[in-house]
Amino acid sequence: MVKGESLKKKTVNGVMWSAIDRFSTQGIQFVFSILIARLLMPSDYGVIAMLGIFLSVSQAFIDSGFSTALVQKVNRTETDFSTVFYFNIVVAIFFYILLWFAAPFIASFYNIPMLEDVTRVVSLMLVFSSLSGIQSAKLSIAINFKTRAKISVISAVSTGCLGLYLAYNGYGAWALVLQMVFSSLLGTILLWYFVRWIPKLIFSWQSFRQLFSFGSKLLASGLLDTIYNNIYTLVIGKVYSSFALGLYSRASGFAQYPSSNITGVLQGVTFPVLCSIQNDEQRLADAYKRFIRMSAFIIFPLMVGLAAVADPFIRVVLTDKWEGAIYLLQIVCFSMMWYPIHAINLNLLQVKGRSDYFLKLEVIKKIQGVCILCITVPFSIVAMCYGSVVTSLLSLVWNTYYTNRLIGYGFFSQIKDLSHILIHSLVMGGIVLFTISLVEITWAKLIAGILVGGIYYIWGAYLMRFDELKEVLSIIKRK
């Protein structure tokens, strides 16, 4: 078990390198995605988004919760690793064959003929990624995000250049397809190079059953989450158009950049760290509360700020042809700002080995979400986005129910701890909106909004003596 300063040091190092991994990689990908989006049309992105649900469901079955089970298990063995490795490959090949034969029906469902060939090519990602699942899990177990950062940066630069070249030369949606497949292949090659692990010629049913008893519940909950998260793209692509889906996917993608990536940093590091102190109730509760406040301190202002500058941001970054995504982005930001709080609450259930609680929550939340979706679909995509905000807030109530049972930190306690951050962020958003209304030039609106918002938030947090700011500064000072 990691103790005292050793745990703190390991956590800080993990967060630092995970942050470098996420934000150097995402920064590079963000730049390339902007350049590519300026060359392509929203409908090109819509075509790729239509396949999201099929690829995501397949990937969920391939992993089947085994990666998380391996990280959570204390006395894992080489037999465990080899068993999961072979399982992943067999399931990946099965789903690739399934999607190959399903491709004509997918194209017919959306009434887009090119989807038949696109499905068969992009599904190669499933096979490539299945070959490196164990290597990725080993990096997480070791909290070795430095190596992951190297892999991610190399892959992001290489695949970004390829995607930009193809988009510039008129490949359209195929530029995105080939970029995705090459990214998966290169990532697998690099993981094998940096993580020198070779599977043994062994498959243990005992190991499989033991890991699957934990992972199966995560698989079920993961499938529910995956299907629900992609059902918006499925419905929009079918009911509306690939152009409308392209606008929605780009707005959703921008909203997810800060929210999902910072959450990924915190979740990827906090899970193995919290697992190491899972039997020390007081330390676990204290660490968990600190992670919740820190994530909100970082995420809330970013999401509110992005919503405030959405208009000049979209016009400057993607040009006016993407202006239909502006209002969608503003709404989705208020849904995604709660994402890290959801994730860390659910993280605690996995740390405590309560994947049964995890599954129950997912079933309840997805039924609730589908009901709200069915109500909003007939109106418009905007109504669907507002529905996602309502769903996110209601889900927070459900997610904190078991957290309260496990460590006595429920919904009202969390809202109370986060209220000062939320209010400060909303005030910042209002100031940014007022500031950009005074500026006429579009690019100047964006710069002014970012500068004023950032300065106000940090200076205000300093004057009001936010503990979260002190902790961030202390981490920066130590590093």
UniProtKB/TrEMBL annotation:
It is a multi-pass membrane protein. Belongs to the polysaccharide synthase family. The keyword S-adenosyl-L-methionine does not apply. Keywords: Cell membrane, Membrane, Transmembrane, Transmembrane helix. This is Lipopolysaccharide biosynthesis protein. InterPro entries: Poly_Biosynth_Transport. CDD domains: MATE_tuaB_like. The chain crosses the membrane at residues 47-71, 83-106, 118-137, 149-168, 174-195, 291-314, 326-349, 370-398, 418-439, 446-464. It is found in: Cell membrane.
